[in-house]
Amino acid sequence: PVLAGMNGSAIENFSCVVYNIFLMNCTWQAGRDAPADTQYFLYWQNSRDDEEMECDLYVKDENCRNMGCIFQNVTIGTEKAYFLVNGSSNDSLIQSYDEYIDLYKIEKLMPPSNIRVKCDEIKNDCIIQWQRPQISHSNKDKCFKYEINVKYK
């Protein structure tokens, strides 16, 4: 959704990913018609009960324009998180961009840990065991599927 301001000035290609259990990275591109001096600011709210917070660690491009944000200590709740990116320019009013995102849907899972392989040459079989990867949201033991690719030397 786009709010009031100059057409084509709102950010484009907004995308976020949660990784390493509690980190989140969001990125975007400047609006194609945004003035060169446009600076963008990201605000987010993890749930309706949380305060809206501005990004405190922006990722900048070569022109010192904010083009992303790294969040630390992110917890995934049951509600959609709300993201709002405002822009400012001396030349014109910049359109805002906002989006609601289910954080669990954008979590990049860690690999399984503590992988153990025990083979029995007499029985000609192997037992492979592992621990489920850590995740940051609830339903911790549901919906895991694993694929094992065994290559013989």
UniProtKB/TrEMBL annotation:
Q: Which GO terms describe its molecular function?
A: cytokine receptor activity
All copies of domain Type I cytokine receptor cytokine-binding, residue ranges: 13-106
Among its keywords, does the record have Transmembrane?
yes
Q: Which PROSITE patterns did the record assign? A: HEMATOPO_REC_S_F2
Q: Which InterPro entries does the record associate with it?
A: FN3_sf (IPR036116), Ig-like_fold (IPR013783), Short_hematopoietin_rcpt_2_CS (IPR003532), TypeI_recpt_CBD (IPR015321)
Q: What kind of membrane protein is this, topologically?
A: Single-pass type I membrane protein
Protein name as catalogued: CSF2R factor
